[in-house]
Amino acid sequence: MAFWVYVLATASYVGFVAKKMKAWASIGRTLLCAGLALHTASLVVRTVATGHPPFLNLYEYMLAFTWGAAAVYLMLEFLTKSQAYGGFVVPLITAFCFLTYRLPSTAEHVMPALKGPWLIPHITSAILAYASFTVAFVLAILYLVKERAERNPASFWNSRLPALKTLDQTVYRTIAFGFLMQTTLVIMGAVWAQYAWGRYWGWDPKETWSLITWFIYAAYLHTRVTMGWRGRKSAIVAVAGFAAVLFTLFGVSLLLTGLHSYA
Question: What percent of the chain is predicted at pLDDT more than 70?
Answer without folding.
Answer: 91
